């Protein structure tokens, strides 16, 4: 497939790019700054996400948004969702969003988000609140084919690539070891699995280490 990845050179974006390349997909990294050293079979579109147009993305089969708003500008998570919905409407491009864990619920009745709990770090709340609002906007949008994947509470940059994970919907998952965690490598595997064999269209879901 032809896959565009917004933020392809970021932490999560790098794992997604590498996983997609190993599976033989045609990848375009959408970035503000093109790195000096690049990989084979990887092309770049140098453009700010807010300047993307329908013409830029309409030839992709999938557009992955791995955007991370700068500190102090967390409201851009909502603005990015609005912009992507606008340019994707009326196309066949599937939108995949790298979400956050803060918007997951911690109770079976789905009344309390993780970011609303006492132990959630204050410094992460602006990002989580705005990412949650962006998800709500996406859920209420029409004419866009989307999937939103939230990681577990601990999103591990240097975690092992096991190729195994368990899947949930709106509630925070816990592994058999009592931890809510997923490596970025396994998260990338989960997203590419979903891209290749869709099971969560028009849904948010989450993955956790076994």
TrEMBL record:
InterPro entries: NAD(P)-bd_dom, NAD(P)-bd_dom_sf, Polyketide_Oxido-like. GO terms for molecular function: oxidoreductase activity, acting on the CH-NH group of donors, NAD or NADP as acceptor. Pfam families: NAD_binding_10 (PF13460). Residues 7-194 form the NAD(P)-binding domain. Coiled coil: none annotated. This is NADH-flavin reductase.
